[in-house]
Amino acid sequence: MSILVNKDSRVCVQGITGREGMTRARLMTEYGTSVVAGVTPGKGGQEVLDVPVFDTMFEAMAATKDQGGIDISVLFIPAPLVKSAAIEAIEAGVKFLVIVPDRVPIWDVMEIADAAKEYEASFLGPNTLGCLSVDQAVLGMMGGTARSAKDFFKPGKVGVSSRSGGITSSIAYYLSKAGIGLTTICHVGGDVIIGLPHSEVVKRFQEDPETEVIVMFGEIGTSQEERVADLMMKKEVTKPVVAYIGGKGAKEGTRFSHAGAIIEGGKGTREGKIQALKAAGAHLVEDFVDIPKVTSEVLKSLEKPE
Amino acid sequence: MARLFEYQGKEILKRAGFTIPDGKVCTSPEETEETAKKLGGTVAVKAQVWVTGRKAKGLIRFCKTPEAAREAAEELLGQVVNNFPIEKLLVEKLLEVDRELFAAIIIDDAEAQPVVIFSSLGGSGIEETARKHPEAVARKHIDLKVGLRDFEARELVRKTTLDRSHYNKAAATLVKLYKAARLTETRSIEINPLIITKDGQWVAADCHATVDDYAVFRHPELGIEIARELDHPITTLERLAYGVEKSDYRGTFYFFQIIQDIPEAGKNTQGEDIIGFHGAGGGGSMISMDSLGKTNFAIANFCDTSGNPPASKVYRAAKIILAQGPIRGYFASGSGVASQEQFHSARGFLKAFRELGLSVPAVIRLGGNKEEVAIEILKTHLADIGVPVEAYGKDDSAVSCAERLRALVDGGPYSPIGPDPISNPDPPEKPYAFKTLTGQWTVDHAKCASCDKKPCVDACHPNILELDDGKVVLNITAEEAAKGRCTECLACEIACWAEAKKAIKIDLPIPGLDEYLAEKEVVQEVS
Ligand code: SF4
Ligand code: SF4
Q1: Which of B3, B108, B337 sits opposite A166 (nearest CB)?
Q2: Which tens digits make up the pLDDT trace of B363-407?
Q3: How many domains does chain B have?
Q4: Which structural domain range is residue A44 located in?
Q5: Which residue's CA is the closest to the ligand 2 atom numbered 8?
Q6: Which one of A187, A198, A258, A283 is the catalytic residue?
Q7: CB proximity A247 to B under 8 Å
Q8: Is the dihedral of CA A36, A42, A44, A48 positive or negative?
Q9: Predicted ipTM?
Q10: Is residue B527 situated within a structural domain?
Q11: Predicted TM-score of the model (pTM)
Q12: Domain count, chain A
């Protein structure tokens, strides 16, 4: 099993005729993702990698309806155009979006979030490498090529959620290399407002019967890691969480606006995150290279009932 | 996020219909005196700096006479606050205050919604007010679809201790502030204090605003040159780097200097070796920098080329890093398992290191997709430059790579061979050229005539080169090449240099870099 995407998910690529879209569509199909449609306004009627291209999301949805429609749309679109493309997909009925581009303006992201809420859809990103369910499907650009993705990531019981794209695949690779297999690995996105923060991804891992341990890579800023700690405190998340919080060397930003501090309520520092997670019972890793070691210990402790 | 000065924030407010105090931005004591004279009466001379609580820090002076204003300006201008010298003063007519209020629109990241905050007590920091007088502060999330409506704003201000005679005016003010925030795409905009004057006017006496960096491109009216928050005034090299990033949309390139003046010996006051840092990806860069700390290096700069940058971008980044001065080593390390093909970066490093004549040891950790090819490129083509360049992949941790650099830096001295460009500097006899997205590709067809292997054509993965009567030419139009079909991957240039006649030259200028280096040279000679 897996979260967010599996081998049966029907996927559309918005921006499939562009440089990035085409390269990543190849990665996705070669890895096993079922890409059923592409959308680029003005380029309908063509085929890219045997995938039919449509002019609009509504058209793509209608044309694929009999085979099961579209579950997921992955966006490779210049940042200023993302808002319109994302809301188009949401209103056309797509329930899950992966917004790969970075530099999407924050007020645009808020509008996308608003539309998603109204249509009960969700989105990963923006500024995400995507996610990958091992040996099933990949969304976005995780792994680079199908070959390397197959080589790097092995199936198993650990879910990975990370604030950094490169680190998502690093952790997944080092775990696999240590003989620890994975369910789904997920890059939540690097921006301050994102569709599925750690807390949402972790909740999904909690519901996934195959995932037994969750590995989380956190960073300073935002309150995502604190919210995971909250979920653990409330027992909404009971699976073990192994966490590393980066940014030891980074200077804490001096705050310019006091009003921002009111809203965040003191959240966001590395120390605060570590304290909250420790108090909630997470396994904190001090040294990045120790993630596989700690994860394997946690997995072992699950094997023998206490 | 881009921070705005008070006067810039007030310009936003003015455009939105707010009343702001009479005043002017001044940059000299003379101008300040002149302005004070024109305004008449007592004026406030306010340093334009990015800190809160300026009054208590002596950065706002109240001056009764133009002479006093001039003196205040003399004291303030040039003073350094949080690394930034004061360059501008806002000189304003003093208001006759009856009441001080607070109003702000802030984006709540966790909820992905804007929040309006209003307080019937203004002046001091809102955190403090909320703690001491919670009854005076109210806030509310705003539904983006409908915006902030006047009745909602009235309901909000009713929950504070504001006198009901002011409800309508306060609500209208908040609605106006929301519109300004929405229109300008601010991350936060805060009026503190919002003043009711003795004669009943509502005036925005101070304004703190930050703008979403990603939206700055839609707001030329803000006049923001560089949408990036630095803790020091931007340096020449940072400006050059920003220029590179802006003119090339492929991948990101983020560069800033941590040590701005590297001492001649390349060591900081603690005796640590200063090295150039070149990361890839935020998280990986952070971990890599931590590992440098553990091996007693001081880091000259932060640099991140990621998001699938072309070789040309990595090349330019490397050149800028090396232009910083007498660093003792070069450390490149990212996440370790990158999704992007690593040989692009390897070619960028190769070209930069040879052209500039790398004179210090380098450790390049290029883990991830196609790392074998990348490592091979660096190993074969940099073995003879007289300083060690070691390349590693995903199975070598950042810490172990940092330890390698430690050993190499300690293992000197080395005898670098100096600049040895991979392309022939002589003017071509029979030139054939085309423009690339950010540079120019040139070949000397005179040399191709005696080349039998023609490795350049095969090296070009985008497949845009072909042979025409033994000479290499484009098989697409020059426009297509210039628009990005030539990916500036540098593979043809390196193949021709390594296996053929050094006939290809790819020029990738960094506007301003030569001037920068020349000027530095002059300064060094003088001192
Ligand atoms: S490899 Fe160099 S010399 Fe040979 S054909 Fe190509 S450009 Fe000309
Ligand atoms: S001509 Fe081909 S090989 Fe040479 S830089 Fe351009 S894309 Fe690369």
Answers
A1: B337
A2: 999 988 889 999 999 999 999 999 999 999 989 999 999 999 999
A3: 4
A4: 1-126
A5: B489
A6: A258
A7: yes
A8: negative
A9: 0.88
A10: no
A11: 0.88
A12: 2
